[in-house]
Write a structure and sequence with these properties.
Keywords: Transferase. With 390 residues, the chain is α/β, with parallel strands linked by helices. The protein contains 13 helices and 15 strands. Strand 4 and strand 5 form a beta hairpin.
Length: 390
């Protein structure tokens, strides 16, 4: 009779990721935090992902390189193209008792087949709304096809985890799977908090003490809503109220964004305490992206005491309480975005009240509690497979 595991020490997890550490973003940083937590709980974890010569940061845990190729036009990202004999030998030697898939790429498809052949449970985590990407490249007609391909992939998995209830509901409506639970995101409160605000730093980049700073921080790619951001700022300018725009981040769309917003201040990429200082030194976050499944950016801004103007879309809807911690605006509604920004620019008491409420909300997001929810899901799936084999 097979004994069902009851603790993390019994877990042997093979984690497949399309980007674990070669480009820094919220999804791969969450995966690294998860692996670090699992290792501290006594689990064994092996990560399989593409690698590059100069990654953005050191990986947490053991990382096995997957064969990959650079995406045409977006060379900073790689597609894991499959599982070769070297990787299969490593998998066979590691002998995982569960497989975790975090990106629906060709290697993940092969990993799912490998796991199903061996009767291993498969958990997939959903980190972005891939099916929405084509609309930002004038290819919206591909969305139904991409959604159907994703559905076929996710239904071959035993369960999914999504970072927010709003995203989980979208996945249910799309019939991606019938076992969907929440793997939320946490925030490092020692890093992101209002005390990081630094007026001297603001002055050093040309921002006056009395100027209201509308901030944006993220990878600078079109799918983050850069066009909507720019159009709303144009409308705000027409209202003749004083404000400044601060953009933190880098990416392939930076030149486009700088040309579109010539009066904005661009810092380029910032990380660690430099990023936290920049965020806390903003006065309001404007983040109109609709591709987020959670919104790490939104939570980090809230932890710094900023009101947030965001799209009423997956991720933000689970974080922002409309007219309490910020504003949720219908995606693409330029006039409404501009009106919300105008209100915050001209009402400092409202900014402070909504910012304080957002900071209080951010206290609910503890990384250890959140990552234990994933460990509990692993254990549940492994136990279910063990019962079937018994």
């Amino acid at each position: 009779m097979t004994v069902a595991p009851s603790s993390c020490e019994s877990l042997r997890i093979a984690l497949f990721s399309g980007n674990y550490n070669y480009v820094r973003d919220g999804a791969n940083q969450s995966l690294n935090r998860l692996v670090g937590y699992l290792l501290r709980q006594g689990a064994q974890v092996r990560v399989y992902a593409p690698t590059v010569e100069t990654p953005a940061f050191e990986p947490t845990g053991d990382l096995v390189s997957l064969p990959s190729f650079a995406i045409p036009g977006r060379a900073e990202y790689h597609v894991a193209s499959g599982i070769n004999r070297r990787v299969r030998r490593d998998l066979d030697a590691f002998q995982p008792n569960i497989v975790h898939i975090s990106s629906p790429d060709p290697a993940a498809h092969r990993a799912v087949s490998w796991a199903r052949e061996r009767g291993l449970p498969i958990l997939a985590s959903v980190h972005t709304r891939f099916e929405t990407y084509p609309r930002y490249y004038n290819l919206a007609f591909l969305e139904p096809i991409l959604e159907a391909l994703l559905r076929r992939f996710y239904r071959r998995c035993d369960a999914l985890v999504a970072p927010s209830e709003s995203m989980a509901q979208v996945l249910r409506e799309q019939r991606m799977n019938y076992d969907i639970s929440i793997w939320s995101r946490g925030v490092d409160r020692e890093m992101f908090n209002p005390q990081r605000r630094d007026m001297e730093w603001r002055r050093s980049i040309g921002l006056g003490d009395d100027e209201v700073v509308i901030g944006f921080f993220s990878r600078l790619v079109m799918e983050k809503g850069l066009d909507v951001f720019s159009d709303a700022i144009d409308e705000l300018r027409a209202k003749n109220v004083p404000y400044r725009v601060l953009v933190v981040g880098d990416g392939p769309a930076r030149d486009w964004f700088e040309n579109r917003l010539p009066e904005a201040t661009f810092t380029g990429f910032l990380g660690g305490t430099d990023l936290a200082r920049a965020v806390a030194s903003m006065d309001v976050l404007f983040f109109p992206s609709i591709t987020e499944t959670f919104g790490n950016v939104t939570l980090e801004a809230m932890a710094c005491g900023l009101p947030v103007v965001a799209a009423a879309a997956t991720g933000s809807e689970s974080l922002v309480d409309d007219r309490v911690t910020g504003r949720l605006i219908r995606p693409g509604a330029i006039h409404q975005y501009a009106d919300a920004l105008h209100t915050y620019v001209t009402d400092p008491a409202l900014r402070r009240r909504h910012g304080d409420a957002g900071e209080a909300r951010s206290l609910e997001f503890s990384w250890d509690r959140i990552n234990q929810a994933v460990a509990d899901t692993y254990l549940r799936l492994v136990r279910a497979k063990a019962r079937k084999r018994a």
